Give the backbone structure.
Amino acid sequence: ATGISGNPGSYFHVPSLPEWLTYFNLRAGLATPEKDVLTQVFAAALSKGRGDTDIFGLRLQRHSFDFFLRKLAILYRGHANDVARIEAAFGKTLFIYLTRPDKVEQAVSCVKALQTGLWHVAPDGTEMERQSPPQKPIYSPGELRFTYNEFVAFELGWQQWFDSQDIQPFRITYDALSADPIGTLKTVLRELGLNANAANGVVPEVAKLADATNQDWARRFRTELGAADASPLFA
């Protein structure tokens, strides 16, 4: 969006090599060595993630991160650790950690999106991403508990990985990003050593979906967890 900071995307979102090939419109024969296939995939990702800039941008999520690291290790066996392999593939790296401290609210948002099928809307309310036909959301403590536990585990997984790699990531919270997307983007550009004014013409493409239903579910679920005053869980 800024024109100077790459074209960041979820290029390895699905933990599946065939899915990666499909995403990048690549082909590989059954007899092609896996390392050769991965070389093609990572080259395609690097090209796409740079756009017309010198910076590569990539979004990784915890659910597929370990698979990504295993495949990266096939390409860069001689490197000492994950960070060395990541930088061998993509260059000097700034690790930006976007997290939502309130795991109750995060679980509510996720379960509601899964139920309704609606994941993203534009600022004018136009649907941008729908994954299933519209359905009315129904409060489900079992779904919320499962999702909440999953997000807590993901958070701990990230912290353990950062510690294991001696990384101090540049941290951004969902709340800060939601409250001031342009200001947050400017802080990221500064951290990258780029001109923060490049964010001035950027228009946020999505709007918050949270509504009274989210608030009601979060209140009820906190009560059930016995943690009405224990949020945020992470800082």
